[in-house]
Amino acid sequence: MYGIFMECWVALKLYGGNGVLLVLFLAAAIYLTFKEENIKKKVMLGILPLVVLAGFLFPVTKIVYVAVFNSDGGDTYYRVLWLIPMYAVIGYAACKLIFSFKKKAVSRIVMALILAVIAAGGSLVYLNQYVSVAQNLYHIPDNVIEICDRITPDEGKPRVRAAFPSELVHFVRQYDTNILMPYGREMLEPGKDYYNPVFEVMEKPKVINAEELVNATRETKCSYIILAEDRKIDADLTELGLKVMDTVGKYIIYVDPEILEN
């Protein structure tokens, strides 16, 4: 039971990021539990969120969850936390605290302090590697659109599979569902330890073993391999039967006739 509890605790810490949000939520929920006079609001925004959080950490809850949703082995157990309206709890409690002071000057000071804590505990979204100035109406990189347009199958033809660099994986399926990939964003999530043969040889080593990459992509029926020009590889893929289809920006599109023609 202790081991399961620790798994739940680790999942909670990962979900809470740097922990500021969880601390604010706990403080807000406890505050509403004791200070809110409306019984419905007290239950919905104070008591129930704390009960859900406690239930999440209770080992039996995870045992039951895994028994019901055993297909994922409990990997999605963190989604139980989605039942907690954290932002609503924090926002309502903050407003209630601010307006509880009779003097406007005090209320303004408290509001400024709360906003400062929330701002300092977060991160600037524009610094995220996946956030950039929109280049088109799809709000995805132009390179992705151009590559997809080059390799997408003609109407009525079967879907194709292509191995993309990790920095492009998030965007491909947003633009074209006719292009499949040997691995998706699940391989890039922190804390995950999935195994994928293409990802192992294409993303993990500093220098790609060309022969191993081609073997892996052929095993997974990839018609295309997309690599950045500056990606280190120990041999030219054209020497292993692939052809250069096109170059889009800094990315080279390799096509594998052996797979595409079958």
Structure, explained:
By secondary structure, the chain is of the alpha/beta class. It folds into 2 domains: 2-122; 142-260, no CATH class. Helices cover 50% and strands 8% of the residues. It contains 11 helices and 5 strands, in the order H-H-H-H-H-H-H-E-H-E-H-H-E-E-E-H. It has a 5-stranded mixed beta sheet, with helices on one face. Strand 4 (243-248) and strand 5 form a beta hairpin. Helix 2 (20-35) crosses helix 5 (86-99). It is elongated, with a radius of gyration of 25 Å. The protein starts with a helix and ends with a helix.
Layout of strands and helices, then pairs:
Elements: H1 2-16, H2 20-35, H3 39-57, H4 59-68, H5 86-99, H6 104-121, H7 142-151, E1 160-163, H8 166-175, E2 179-180, H9 197-202, H10 210-219, E3 224-228, E4 243-248, E5 251-255, H11 257-260
Parallel strand pairs: 1-2, 1-3
Antiparallel strand pairs: 3-5, 4-5
| Terminus-to-terminus distance | 52 Å
Number of strands: 5
Instruction: Characterize the main sheet.
Output: 5 strands, mixed
Give the overall shape: elongated
* Count, helices: 11
Structural class: alpha/beta
- Rg over CA atoms: 25 Å
Strand content: 5-15%
Work out the count of structural domains: 2
Q: Which runs of at least 5 residues are low in confidence (pLDDT < 50)? A: none
- Let me know the average pLDDT: 89
Strands across the major sheet, in which order?
A: 2-1-3-5-4
